[in-house]
Amino acid sequence: MTVVELTQSLNIAAPELALAVGSMVLLMIGVFAPKDSANSTVTGLAVALLIGVLGWMVFFDEQGTAFGGAFVQDAFAYFFKILTLVGSIVALVMSVGFAREEKFDRFEFPILIILATLGMMLMISATSLLSLYMALELQSLALYVIAAINRDSARSTEAGLKYFVLGALSSGMMLYGISLVYGFTGHVGFTEIAAALTGQERSVGLLFGLAFLLTGLAFKISAVPFHMWTPDVYEGAPTPVTAFFAAAPKMAAMAMLVRVVTDAFGTVTGDWQQIIIFISIASMALGAVAAIGQNNIKRLMAYSSIGHMGYALVGLAAGTVAGVQGVLVYMAIYLAMTLGTFAFILAMRRKDEGNVESINDLAGYAQNNPLQATVLTILMFSLAGIPPLAGFWGKWYVFLAAVEAGLYPLAIIGVVASVVGAFYYLRIIKIMWFDEPESKFVSAAGELRLVMGLSGIFVVGFIVFGGPIAAYAENAAKALF
Amino acid sequence: MYHAIVFLPLLGAIVAGFGGRAIGAKASEYITSGFMVIAAILSWVAFLTVAMAHDDHSATVQVMRWIQVGSLDVNWAFRIDTLTAVMLVVVNTVSTLVHIYSIGYMHHDPHRPRFFAYLSLFTFAMLMLVTSDNLVQMFFGWEGVGLASYLLIGFWYKKPSANSAAMKAFIVNRVGDFGFALGIFGVFVLFGSVNFDTIFANAATYLPAEGAEASTDTVLTFLGYSLDKSHALTVVCLLLFMGAMGKSAQFLLHTWLPDAMEGPTPVSALIHAATMVTAGVFLVARMSPIFELSQTALTVVVIIGATTAFFAATVGLVQNDIKRVIAYSTCSQLGYMFVALGIGAYGAAVFHLFTHAFFKALLFLGAGSVIHAVSDEQDMRRMGGLRKLIPTTYWMMIIGTVALTGVGIPGTLIGTAGFFSKDAIIESAFVAQNSAAGYAFVMLVVAALFTSFYSWRLIFMTFHGKPRATADVMHHVHDSPPVMLVPLFILAVGAILAGVVFHGYFFGHHYDEFWKGALFTLPDNNIVDEFHNVPFLVKWSATIVMLLGLLGAWYMYIRSPQTPASLAAQHNGLYKFLLNKWYFDELYDFLFVRPAKRLGSFLWKRGDGWLIDGFGPNNIAARVSGLAQRAVKVQTGFLYHYAFAMLIGVAALVTWIMLGGIH
Q: Where are the bilayer-spanning segments (chain A) (predicted)?
């Protein structure tokens, strides 16, 4: 690698470099700042850094391949990186009030978020199995720690430990898959693998490798049957952490999955397609059914996110540009809805009890705070996929792609699952509007109200500005084909 | 002017219907009635300019474009000719009087704005029907009056019997309307248009040309039969007539009319005597250019009409409900009109429609006045002896009865309205060439006898003899207020004079300059000239049987009141047969209602409840909640369970991809 190539590569990867350097600087600041103000200082600076990177990415559109084909900055990467950064920023902002109220003031939290975000951005851009694995581990290690960050809480540490052990298992299986793929194709770069698979009778070993590789990826997006960690971690981790888990890492992992199967294995679509269909159906079904039995709203959101990953995979299963476009649109909508819903969950706070997490605590929300209850109702309708809200359009894009690709059974199962799934969203609405009121929540912090409002506007207004988003997503999807 | 005639009632309906709460009951009554008075005066103006003038003032008034799809081109337009003008006069006059009468009759009802809104809505729909320029607009009015009739029969919606009567009227009419709709489709297939002008202009081409063989090309396929031109026309006419049968309560589709008496009495007068039920007569008269071409269809019309006239008259003989007697009388008189249509005496039919509107509305409103007087009692067996107590109503009812029974001296100009119109029909039936005319003549003469009998029976049972009501009721008997009596006076004038004034125009010497081609007759149909030349006995037949009926009623209800009971006991079977209206309701109940209910309950209990709910929503819901519990149970919280699930998963995926990789 010559000096010219290196400077070019560094130039292309400037946002990632900024995050890497910034995290170290923030660590220093955190260590040397006065102890009682360390957290707020670092959080503020971390948000500023992430916003700066986001602005950089929006205004300096530097595309190209870097580091000898291991890293790519293309329209697809831009789309998901922006989503990921938005997820991280909002999750971090929403943690401010929580940190103040719950004495959850560790300055390591924002730094870990930045490191995890860096890992995610690298995952999104990775075009070689090795860079992919490295990025994945960087992200995962940060997430393990974040899950257990409330180390005095048994539930939080249990969640972190479970996540770590299962994550290690999935990493191992994935690494095994990578080695098999390397062994049977002789390459780790995506383009080289694709070239090696063209016109060649693919071997059993490669199929094995593909299955193991997909296992590791499916674990990260918490698709069934690799979802078991999700409810426990969502419930056990502090709520801002759960919000973060539900948002940013899902974006990165989905981006990685899409890129691997379309870039590296685009020539053997039939092989991975059946696996994607399988885990898609399983995720939709479990997400719809298992959430019905939940009373803890964070657990419920865990199953909800499992289900939503299943719906997004419907688009991927189509394996077409329209399908990938559907995935992108779906993930953007999912991000907005999830962040909005978690803003409400964080706002479920009583003076004497602190934060509450039971669905029944929402009883009488409509009487106590009609405006917020209305927004939450809109979000729930959107999550259930009721037109004309954003959630409906997300499903519309992926199901349409599946139908166009001839996957009628998949689309039908998806529709049936979303009908079943509508039950528990509607149950929340029913509890809010029709049950005997409980005592009031304390008024929500300003930043939470801002997130609620923005996500409400996004969900309602998607029918108006959905067109440009879809066009942008189509452009991003074309970068893969 | 025509816009005002048609749309003023609609305006009144909207104001009273939607603003009734805001402006109050009094204002609603006055606004709707005021609009109707204006519309009625304008209708008479229209009648004088269009029908009575020597010049041809018929016109088409375009309101707006309505439907333009492919070759279907339907405009919303008024067809103004003599027939329309006659109907405008009948509808608006009776409707106005009923509006005014209702102010008194409905005095105690808390829902008066709604009632007046419905009345005006009905009037608007009826006007749409009679002014229509094409079949689709007519169908709109047709359904509109059906709706208004449904709403008004069920006006007292807290009465279960009123609700079921309203439903019965609606459902029975559905049968007829189905035929009517098919008829409209058939007309469109045959003529490529639903506009009357086009249809009538092309109807002549359906006649074989002079001396030429009739064409046998198939022009219409119906129920698997390929029909040539003349048969196709017959089928279309019969289908249209089916609609007329439903609306005009003809034999087989008549069962709803007596039950419709559950509605308030002014409604019975307006809708179920004077206007809506004559819509069928109007339809056939309007379509005379195509009916005239199909002898088969006309024969069916005659048979049905004659049978209805006879059947309804027999049932009317033994009914005890004052309104039901008049209802069967209406049914019977409609039969007369259809006979007239069927034998080609369209003018006589419309003439009878015109006079009938006056005297039947008079009878109904009079009956309403009686019911009002005896505290809402309708059973004649609990009346009697009211003559002295409500003399005005008594005399009005007498006028209605002499008009209905057709009192007059043949050969002179002395006679009531019914005398001129009904006798014209009976005499026409005698001279007509139609193959069923003989049957019709016999039936009509017998029906005239019965008409006279049951009409006088009603008078005698209600007003004469000893009071059979309780002393309490008798104590409260009082004549109606002027607001109810004035409409009766106006109708009474019509009932006496309508015949003598107009018979020359409708069905006499001025036939041609009066109708100006609004009614079509074939060149060889000159019944209007021939019906005067009948044997002496035929000319007197109606008058003779009328007197016989009067005598019979007088003997049985005044002279020896025990005769009816002994007669009924003697001929118990016949009496029961008539009292139960020839068991039509029971027959339909057995044939249609009960099987439909059985089918419905089968589909409901087994089809919907057991099959669809059981295996559909309910079953899925049960399975889902079962699955949900199991899914929750799987989530044990143990790490090794989770890891195990992942390993199972990866094993499954590998197997799956291997199996998939084979093919």
A: 12-33, 40-60, 75-97, 109-126, 161-184, 204-229, 272-293, 300-321, 327-348, 369-390, 396-426, 447-473
Residues B560 and B445 in one domain: yes
In a domain, B136, yes or no: no
Interface test with B, best of A162, A224, A276, A289 (most B CBs within 10 A): A289
* Cα B285 to Cα B272: distance, rounded to the nearest angstrom: 19
Q: What percent of chain B has pLDDT over 90?
A: 33
Which residues of chain B have a CB within 8 Å of the CB of A212? Answer: 650, 654
Going by C-beta distance under 8 Å and a sequence separation of 6 or more, which residues neighbour residue B279? B126, B129, B142, B145, B244, B247, B248
CA distance B651 to chain A (A): 9
State how beta strands B225-227 and B220-222 pair.
antiparallel
Nearest CA in chain B to A421: B624
Amino acid letter at B564? P
Distance CA A233, CA A103 (A): 20
Rounded Cα gap, residues A259 and A236, in angstroms = 31
The answer as to whether B106 is a domain residue is: no
B398 in a structural domain? yes
| Assembly ipTM | 0.89
Q: For residue B372, what are its two tokens?
A: 């009002």
What's the average pLDDT block by block, 10 residues per block, for chain A (481 residues)? Answer: 87 92 93 86 92 91 87 93 95 88 82 95 94 94 91 88 94 94 92 86 86 92 91 91 94 95 89 91 91 90 94 93 94 95 92 86 89 94 92 93 92 91 92 88 89 94 91 92 85
Radius of gyration of chain B (CA): 30
A166 vs B639: CB contact, 8 Å cut-off? yes
How many domains, chain B? 2
Chain B: which residues have CB within 8 Å of chain A?
A: 620, 624-625, 627-629, 631-632, 635, 637, 639, 641-643, 645-646, 648-650, 652-654, 656-658, 660-661
Same-domain pairing of B509 and B650: no
Nearest C-alpha neighbor of A391 from the set A430, A429, A338, A342: A338
Residue B132 · residue B79 · CB < 8 Å = yes
Scanning every residue of chain B, which has its alpha carbon at the shortest distance from the alpha carbon of A155?
B637
Structural domain harbouring B657: 630-662
